[in-house]
Predict the structure of 5-formyltetrahydrofolate cyclo-ligase.
Amino acid sequence: MPYTKRNIRTQVLKKRSQMRLAERETLSHKIANNLMDRLLPSPAAIIHSFISHDLRQEVDTVLIQRIVGSKLPNLRWVAPRIIPGTRRMEHFYWNDSTTLHTNKWGIQEPDPLLATRVEILDIDIVLVPLLACDRRGHRVGYGGGFYDRFLAECRPEVQRIGLSFEQPLDEITDVSAWDIPLHACITPEKSFTLPY
């Protein structure tokens, strides 16, 4: 079966739906440790992270923020908020005391009236949500295009790091011209520098 985005989405979502909470937590903890090793050269960076969606069984970024943040306290964390009625995001500092609201898709977001806004050009590292990626750094997301638009607005030197329960695939066959590749993919087993 070819590795098309549609096939990959179907397979990965099915596999994730069968994942138990304890397994997700264990794998996310391993990803946090591998991510920490990757971030050590940048201990004072501004790091953008999606806030994981429990119903999608995503890598637990709340756990990762807690683990990595405790070891690298000078990292400043940022989370997105989808601007209602658009396919664009705005970005706010995020920590344990940030007030979060749930949007219409069930995703937790910082309260824009209470959180401090961050400009895209201030961000150094982006943790990118994905279902899978390939060895060239191309990823399969959920198909909404939010991160494609966001990554295109970031500085070219911003590190784009995917978090995945899965190893990189050999090749995603239907990559689009606007797809922006990742620099790395962090899995429970190791950190992959991309392309490889």
Notes: The mean pLDDT is 94. The first helix runs from residue 5 to 17.
